[in-house]
Specification:
Oligomer: single chain
Order of helices and strands: HEHEHEHE
Number of strands: 4
Number of helices: 4
Distance between the termini: 28 Å
Mean pLDDT: 86
Low-confidence stretches: none
Helix content: 25-40%
Radius of gyration: 14 Å
């Protein structure tokens, strides 16, 4: 798993310390809730000054809802947050990375500058048939 230190280093190098027009939106993984990533939020905000928004959507058991329903439901919330910034850093952990990928693909005029997918199976998963 990629360390938080690496993520912070990427953010600081890419955006410096003056980040008033940059926001970070984070989507949690399957069987998790948004609040479980509160330490990530605090760490990033404290070390970069970038405001972090944890998406309160499809938490815990609801996270197994098919992504074909999650993506169009979460996207309007994300657009509302993103409208406050010039640039967005999209961070998705596990299934959150897949949800972010789906939202970026469906969002024609997005302002996502950087997409960080942590522990997400972007090339699918192997299953024996």
């Amino acid at each position: 798993m990629v360390s938080l230190s690496f993520v912070i280093a990427v953010l600081v190098v890419a955006y410096g310390v003056n980040t008033s027009k940059v926001g970070l939106i984070h989507m949690h993984g399957v069987t998790e809730g948004y609040f479980e990533h509160n330490n990530f939020k605090k760490f990033v905000e404290r070390n970069t000054g970038i405001p972090v928004h944890l998406l309160d959507a499809y938490n815990y058991a609801a996270s197994v809802t098919p992504m074909q329903y999650q993506v169009p439901d979460i996207l309007p919330r994300v657009k509302e947050i993103a409208a406050k910034y010039d640039k967005i850093i999209a961070v998705g952990y596990s299934q959150g990375g897949l949800i972010w990928r789906g939202m970026i693909e469906e969002w024609d005029d997005h302002n996502v500058e950087l997409f960080i997918s942590l522990a997400s199976p972007q090339h699918g998963v192997y299953a024996r048939h």
